[in-house]
Here is the input.
Amino acid sequence: MSEELGKVRQMWHLLEPLHAVLYYAPKAFEEAAALGYKTDERWPSYFAWRAAPLGEAGPGRVTSAFYSFSPRMVGEYVPAAWEIASPGDVLDARLRAVDLTYRKIFGERVDAPGTAEAAALLRRAADAANTAGRPLAAANAELAWPDEPHLVLWQAATILREHRGDGHLAALMTARLDPVEALVSFAAIGAASVERFASRGWSPEEWAAGRERLVVRGLLDVEGVATEAGRALRAEVERRTDELAAAPWAALGTEERDRLADLLGPLWIEVLGAGVLPAENTLGIGKV
Here is the structure.
């Protein structure tokens, strides 16, 4: 990996936890419950929070944009999510959830000058993101910017996160990895356990069929472990993802990007230290 792409991936590692607290934080579940969503599991609010920028999208659009979830699973939560609360109400609630969560985790850092500086830098990068062919990034980029710097930081992180994610799907499709195969191949390199990936709603039969297709391609062995070719393909997917995510960061100079990493580091530590995020994740952060 080149030094430049290494910095692109570093920014992803720093931003992903800052975005993802929305899906796990107790304050977010409280806001979801107030809207009427069930909170005994995270999926009702997850699909509402993440899909709301798309408007009243149906299951087909959400399945397409999210890619790795079973259409059956998406159909359990969409469009039912919009019968509980409108996308506009969900968007208002998710900012309240982020506000409460950030204030809980960061305390006085929320109003610190460094947070405002980081937010301004991230917004410049997010504003520079080309969202053509990137539905989730485009939908989030169309939203009005909040006033408070810590919420600007979260929204910019979300745009950049979805920008990278949309590019990742393009890289997967270029590698001829369908939604099931994308998960099977990721589990095969040890990014997370098969049980963790099973949360995406695919049946054992669908998982086994996807694994068999990858065995035929020489990407997995018969035990479901990635071959050398399989690891090389996954590495190429991640490299291509980094390339496709790089453009927004060109809006910042090298010194500004280094400064941003320094500003985000303490926030990243606070989020991980809060114990809100699961120890095992399906992103494979730190393993690819």
In short: The chain has 15 helices and no strands. Residues 149-174 form the longest helix (26 residues). The chain has one domain: 3-273. Residues 3-273 form one domain.
